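Hi support team,

I'm opening this ticket because the web form for multi-chain structure prediction keeps timing out on my end. I have pasted the exact lines I submitted so you can reproduce it. The total is 882 residues across two entries, so I didn't expect it to be a heavy job. Is there a limit I'm missing, or should I split the entries? Thanks in advance, R.K.
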Amino acid sequence: MIPEAQKQIEKLVVDLGYDMKAVMRVLYNTQAYQAEASREEHAPGNVYHFTGPLLRRMSAEQMWDSFVTLINPSPDMINEANREAMEQRILQAKKIADSIESLTAEEALEGLKKAAAIYGSNRSRTEAQQKLYLAARTAYKEAADKADILPEGPAREAAQAEAKALEKKYRDIRSEVSRIQNQGRQVTFAEVIGVGQKKLYEKVTGKPFETVALNTKNTTKGEETAPVMMNGGDMMMMTSSGKAEKVIIPGYDRKELTKEEKEAVAAKIRAAYEEEAEFFGIPEKERKSYISARGQMAKLSLRAAELESPAPRGHYLREFGQSDRETIENANDEASVPQALAMMNGSLLPQIMNKYSQLMLTINKAQYPDDKVEAAYMTVLARKPTTREKEVWLAAQDNGLNTMEDLIFSLLNTQQFIFIQ
Amino acid sequence: MKQELASALLRSGEITRRDFAAKTASSLLGVGLLGNSLTSKSFAAFEGSSKLKQAATAKNVIYLYMSGGQSHMDTWDPKVGVETAGPTKPIKTSADGVRISEYLPLTAQQMHHATVINSLSSTQGAHEQGNYMMHTSYEMRGTIRHPAMGAWLNVFQGGGNSTLPNFVFVGNDSRHPGAGFFPAAQAPLFVSNPENGLKNIRNSAPEDKFQARMKLVNELDKDFRTTFPHRNVKAYADMYDDAMAMMKSEDLKAFDLNDEPGEIRAAYGREAFGQGCLLARRLVERGVRFVEVSLGGWDTHNANFVAVPERCETLDKALSSLVSDLHNRGLLNDTLIVLTSEFGRTPTINQNAGRDHYPKAFSGVMFGGGVKGGFTYGKTDKEGREVVENKVRIQDFNASIAYALGLPLDHVIYSPSKRPFTIADKGQPITDLFAILRNGLFHEHATLRRRRVFCLQREVP
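Hello R.K., no limit was hit. The queue was backed up. Here is the completed structure from your submission:
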């Protein structure tokens, strides 16, 4: 960092009232930021005389977003469903944490004692079942082995049937063990977390909590006092009396939209897609399939910032070096074979070549072949093709590459696509 | 221990000012080999690392990782007549004096090929940390990722095969240190489902069209590559070449498990782990040198004596078939099978009839690859609580694997953050595990060895 520059930026930040967006706007407009990448390779340890930014590969997130913008015509359209799901998950975790927090130590201990009592009494039950299980399993194996060596015929069939019966027996014992084990967890949930949730409800609403059984069929529909079913699917609780109940807490569980509200949201989205279709000149009879394709895209093509980070292993983002968040600054921009394979053969290409992708819509909107090539270049590389590149593409057409897909495939697999110049 | 290291590090600082300047300059300038500018004194921090070396007894490793913490009490170290044994009973095996749990009857027939280590002891009692320690020999920390053994093998000995990656991981375990601080190219190739083979390995276009497209790519990119003859740009060109070579590779047939006769596939077990072991054999046959296959579900806090027999059934089929199959093909001599887990489980059975995490004493097993057959190393007490004979630290266990592969345990490698590391973090190989000394001699004198220091540079952006 150059001291003078640092001072200047410090002053800038203060002058702009710590508005980081405004600071970024200034930085993005500097010549230094906008300059073409330096052509020389900088050896580590040497002083770098700033002849332009260093040539960098796009980060994994930048690459992913590039793909998303090639696929999705409006990647920045607000994705309510996705946001809602994310917020719900956080709220549900918060609900459990706050519920436990709202208990006093004595209250928590009381619940835990009840749970411990169940666990304690279940221990001998589990052990007894485990012994039965082992015996039943051995019996089954012996029977199965015996059946195996018998020659084909009724004797073998009988032996197999017997083995099958024994198999069922040992599997039943297995389920019984799981059931016993589950009981302890259910009681813990009901007697500790459940009690906390009720207390939290009272704290939040200032009203006493009333038990509402949800699993009884005679709850009248539309009854005003009964809470509305909520989003987010938090756990149903089994109380020790075996009654399922769900504590719905305002601020943690949100109201599900009414039918009318849902329709209004859907209509708004549809209208936006209609407008797009209009812009790209989609014929009337294709509108329906366009809108459904766009709905899919909105669900699948989310910007990196809207996805969980780190993405699961094997995801494009991880293949291209997204940080696993195990150590700081752990992202990398190194080349690897799986990356090359993903670029050439991966599942994003067909999505980019889909006729309703941003790229293909733009290309198809262009009228003449030259315009189409230009549109492809502008969309993928953000520049027009050079004369030489046009010649190369013409020559390639003589060699049997005659569709825009051929050109797009090639452009996406060039290195200039993944490096920032 | 800490103090020892600290004083060693302090002593390692006792170099002349001239040396210091040279060292700093060379490391800042990214000069790869530091060797000449350093006196041996500056290696003092690594005085504890093993200088033992031998001709490799194993070419390949198949590493079977029992994720979640395998109960040693109910597998490789069963007890009799004590409460901690639970309902599990030991059975006789094909090796005199070696007894394993009744849940592994098929493997019991292969124990004449095995060395059982009953005295493993780790310091890490949580899954993530334990898994990390087992794979890297180092404690997990926030500032660096250490490489797994397959990556060390890649760096020191390179590929056994030109078209398939040398280091493959089969399984769904999301935690794997991979290449650690080494470049991404040393990372294992992840295969999550052995039945599906490699991801993105086929192009949907006809071959001639694909080739024509790739030719067009080169033509269109020519100007860019001349303008920017940078290392990373070149690296991408190379990776494309490697990827295309791989797509055409004959060795890809390793992934066609359908080539195997039905009986063999069934013998390994139809579960992902069984098929993963079969895939491991097929990869090793084609020169892949380090294959890890992971089997989860060992975290038996509840109903241990229902869960462990079930896991063992999957393991038993796969492991016994793998050992006998490799043996029949004459590959077991060259291939070391290692089986282990992040830790064992408590001898005391908890109130959920389960067992909890127990790093203090547990087991690992090795087959083939030059280890003794029908051999048991180390011992726990009557109840399986404490190691009472020949304690093996994780570092020693990993050093033994490296030793079998002929890897240099005392060669220092610098991470891109300029910190020194060795394979297995100064672990001492347990030479007692190995049957033959091929060259008959261990070169124990430091003076006989040429000391090389590798410095890996990751380009600073």
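A quick check on our side: The radius of gyration of chain B is 24 Å. Let us know if the file doesn't open in your viewer.
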